[in-house]
TrEMBL record:
<dbReference type="InterPro" id="IPR053940">
    <property type="entry name" value="UTP25_NTPase-like"/>
</dbReference>
<dbReference type="GO" id="GO:0000462">
    <property type="term" value="P:maturation of SSU-rRNA from tricistronic rRNA transcript (SSU-rRNA, 5.8S rRNA, LSU-rRNA)"/>
</dbReference>
<dbReference type="InterPro" id="IPR010678">
    <property type="entry name" value="UTP25"/>
</dbReference>
<feature type="compositionally biased region" description="Basic and acidic residues">
    <location>
        <begin position="36"/>
        <end position="47"/>
    </location>
</feature>
<feature type="domain" description="UTP25 C-terminal">
    <location>
        <begin position="506"/>
        <end position="693"/>
    </location>
</feature>
<feature type="domain" description="UTP25 NTP hydrolase-like">
    <location>
        <begin position="221"/>
        <end position="494"/>
    </location>
</feature>
<protein>
    <recommendedName>
        <fullName>Digestive organ expansion factor homolog</fullName>
    </recommendedName>
</protein>
<dbReference type="Pfam" id="PF06862">
    <property type="entry name" value="Utp25_C"/>
</dbReference>
<feature type="region of interest" description="Disordered">
    <location>
        <begin position="89"/>
        <end position="111"/>
    </location>
</feature>
<dbReference type="InterPro" id="IPR053939">
    <property type="entry name" value="UTP25_C"/>
</dbReference>
<dbReference type="GO" id="GO:0034511">
    <property type="term" value="F:U3 snoRNA binding"/>
</dbReference>
<keyword id="KW-0539">Nucleus</keyword>
<feature type="compositionally biased region" description="Basic and acidic residues">
    <location>
        <begin position="16"/>
        <end position="26"/>
    </location>
</feature>
<dbReference type="GO" id="GO:0019843">
    <property type="term" value="F:rRNA binding"/>
</dbReference>
<dbReference type="GO" id="GO:0032040">
    <property type="term" value="C:small-subunit processome"/>
</dbReference>
<feature type="region of interest" description="Disordered">
    <location>
        <begin position="1"/>
        <end position="49"/>
    </location>
</feature>
<comment type="similarity">
    <text>Belongs to the UTP25 family.</text>
</comment>
Length: 697
């Protein structure tokens, strides 16, 4: 007897197979072919002789396929963004076909009023103009080579000397206005600059002259190099770049959401899903990845301040409980990014700038993803789903070098902000350079973005030329200029702020002593490392063997030079003790005691050790700076340690003291921070090899 089948009989389990890469390509290939068929039907039915006929938006034709290229492979590469085709071929393939007639759009009468308002604000529409501009292959080659750049110099009241470097990309390319702007005092001033209304109501107004001028340049999407950051203006600068970053991010999100609605409406009229229709070229509004803004800051305390400023701009001033509801994971964020303040001793206190730098959480290994929704802001979001990334150079490098995860989210960055760059020299400058080298690289995995919504310059690998960089530091150094010159290719140019230094840090020296600057001849930049060492061995080290020579501190800014000198001292059997950033507290105390009581003639001291600890070394009678300090205020700080109150009265040296600074002509910027710009030029280009500065009365 056969058993009747029950309706509730359990069905066999079928494991759903994930979409394979080839299947995803086939789906994209199918709707691309369907879009070609639709275009062909539109072309046949189009009657160009009909006067004053209103047309619906029609998608532009896809690139024509060369005869020697496989059709399936061509569209597969276009969809995924893997550019095995040369950049020049892709750029040329995206140009419009002049043989295809394009119908003129007749604007409805109802939109005349809105069009008039938009026309009044068109001069401030820097966002739309920037990302709709298409760079040609010749433009990209000129940007890389630095050809045809116009320099405009001006003097602004707050910024000082501003130098604009603007590439001339075409004959009809309009150069931005470089005259000094008016101060931003009201929300209407922000609205004229196309700041989102939701931000204008919460912004702290009026902005200072410095804030207004920085925001004006940033809003024009030009790179900014500002090497005059200080503890006094730090918060003003941070507020400006947070305002600009949030405004940019909200514009990006609102454009995408607005186009999503248009695509959905277009899909309904054609009775197809949004992924199957042919989308007009004007709807290209995305990159290959979602993330658009990256902040690189040294400590968690800096990230905490950035998040709080963004929260204030979005939701207004709130209490902690209200902030927890408007910002997801805010309580966890406070636990991870606040507290852990370094103990500052009350007796023998640290310098004021040390306490200001290291206040708050000074952990330098972090990365924080931020994601915006319609009503909230979510912290600790996944990197591939984040709009903003706040990270330290070390945290960003660990993301890049993580073998388990890719770093494709760095492909479509449109705004990069680097703040407190001088602190990265004390941490590890190589981490920053390594991270910057991994921006805008070809994705390792297939992007999930609809290729019809991706901007053409992003598909062609030209996204690095559409990235704006804001770079802030407390002084000007060659390393900072190198980053701006070699890793920042913004097609809208850059603004360098460079003001002459009148006096320098030498005026803060209190010890009455003569300071001798010794110039080392170098043929090129690459040879400075060896030339400086050879000069030190031949001309400075013989003094160590002289009778009575003791209590000499050798101050070394670079850790690589420090290791080289230490190894040479061990080979030559020099009596020395050492203190670097890795030395433990017990060994530091022992080295200081030995040096003070003449147990060792030389103290080898690294600049990074002084940066992180600010140890007061006593007993210094001979100071040798292997290179001018990267932090100019360390110059006077080290010489002031040689005051009579810090000397050992039993060492038997009386008042014999000396200060020697070794430098090359390539140390011009470091010398300017110490002796002033005018004196630095004399030191580097003068006929003499040694110069004497005296603070004796």
């Amino acid at each position: 007897m056969k058993q009747k089948h029950s309706k509730n009989r359990a069905k066999p389990y079928k494991k759903t197979t994930p979409d394979r890469r080839n299947e995803r390509f086939s789906k994209n290939y199918s709707y691309i072919q369907r879009s070609k068929q639709m275009e062909e039907s539109h072309r046949r039915e189009r009657i160009p002789t009909v006067p004053k006929q209103e047309f619906e938006p029609v998608a532009e034709l896809l690139p024509e396929i060369p005869d020697d290229v496989d059709e399936a492979g061509f569209y597969e590469q276009l969809v995924t963004g893997y550019n095995h085709i040369p950049t020049s071929q892709i750029l040329s393939s995206t140009t419009e076909d002049p043989s295809v007639p394009v119908p003129k759009k007749i604007k409805p009468k109802k939109e005349k009023r809105s069009e008039k308002i938009n026309a009044d604000l068109e001069i401030y529409n820097s966002f739309t103009k920037r990302f709709d501009f298409e760079l040609s292959t010749d433009n990209i080659n000129d940007l890389i080579a630095g050809k045809d750049v116009k320099s405009i110099k001006d003097n602004w009241s707050a910024l000082g000397n501003v130098k604009f470097e603007i590439p001339r990309l075409s004959e009809d390319f309009k150069e931005p206005d470089c005259s000094e702007p008016k101060d931003i005092v009201s929300s209407s001033d922000l609205q004229k600059l196309e700041v989102k209304l939701s931000i204008c109501g919460n912004a702290k107004l009026p902005l200072t002259a410095l804030q207004s001028q920085l925001f004006y340049v940033a809003n024009n999407y030009q790179d900014i190099y500002y090497p005059h950051r200080s503890h006094a203006n730090a918060e003003d600068i941070r507020y400006v770049y947070c305002l600009h970053a949030l405004n940019h991010m909200l514009k990006v999100r609102s454009l995408i959401l607005r186009n999503n609605e248009k695509v959905s409406a277009l899909a309904k009229t054609q009775k197809l899903s949004p992924n199957e229709i042919s989308i007009p070229e004007s709807f290209r509004d995305q990159g290959l990845k979602r993330m658009k803004v990256v902040f690189i800051v040294p400590f968690r305390e800096s990230a905490l301040k950035i998040v709080n400023i963004i929260g204030d701009l979005l939701f207004g001033s709130q209490e902690e409980n209200a902030r927890k509801t408007s910002i997801a994971n805010y309580e966890r964020f406070l636990g991870d990014y606040s507290g852990n303040t370094i103990y500052f001793p009350k007796t023998n206190p640290k310098p004021v700038d040390y306490e200001q730098t290291f206040s708050g959480n000074t952990d330098d290994n972090f990365k924080l993803g931020i994601r915006f929704t319609k009503k909230t802001m979510a912290l600790f979001s996944d990197m591939n789903a984040s709009d903003i990334l706040i990270a330290s150079p070390l945290g960003l490098r660990m993301l890049v070098t993580d073998k388990d995860n890719d770093f494709d989210f760095l492909n479509s960055i449109e705004l990069l902000i680097v703040d407190q760059a001088e602190l990265f020299l004390a941490q590890n400058w190589e981490n920053l350079l390594h991270s910057l080298d991994h921006l805008h690289l070809q994705p390792q995995k297939l992007p999930d973005t609809n290729c019809q919504r991706v901007r053409t310059w992003c598909l062609s690998g030209a996204s690095s030329f559409y990235r704006q960089t804001l770079f802030f530091s407390s002084q000007e150094l060659p390393e900072f200029r190198a980053v701006l010159n070699s890793k920042c290719n913004n097609y809208q140019g850059k603004a360098r702020i460079s003001n002459l230094i009148e006096h320098g840090d030498i005026r803060n020296v209190l010890t009455p002593i003569q300071q001798v600057f010794r110039r080392i001849s170098c043929s090129n930049v690459e040879s400075t490392f060896d030339d400086r060492f050879q000069y030190f061995v031949k001309h400075i080290m013989p003094q160590f063997s002289k009778p009575g020579f003791s209590h000499c501190m050798l101050y070394v800014p670079s850790y690589f030079d420090y290791v080289r000198i230490r190894n040479h001292f061990k080979t030559e059997m020099v009596s020395f003790v050492q203190i670097n950033e890795y030395t433990k507290k017990e060994k530091i105390s022992r080295a200081r005691d030995i040096f003070f009581h003449s147990g060792a003639s030389v103290l080898l001291y690294s600049e990074r050790a002084h940066f992180f600890r600010r140890t007061r070394i006593k007993g210094i009678r001979n100071l040798i700076m292997y290179q001018p300090p990267n932090f100019p205020h360390f110059y006077s700080e080290m010489i002031n340690l040689m005051l009579e109150s810090n000397q050992n009265p039993r060492d038997g040296f009386g008042e014999e003291m000396s200060v020697n600074i070794l430098y090359t002509k390539y140390d011009l910027l470091s010398l300017s921070n110490i002796v002033g710009s005018e004196n630095a030029v004399k030191l580097t280009s003068g006929k003499k090899d040694s110069y004497l500065f005296s603070t004796k009365t």
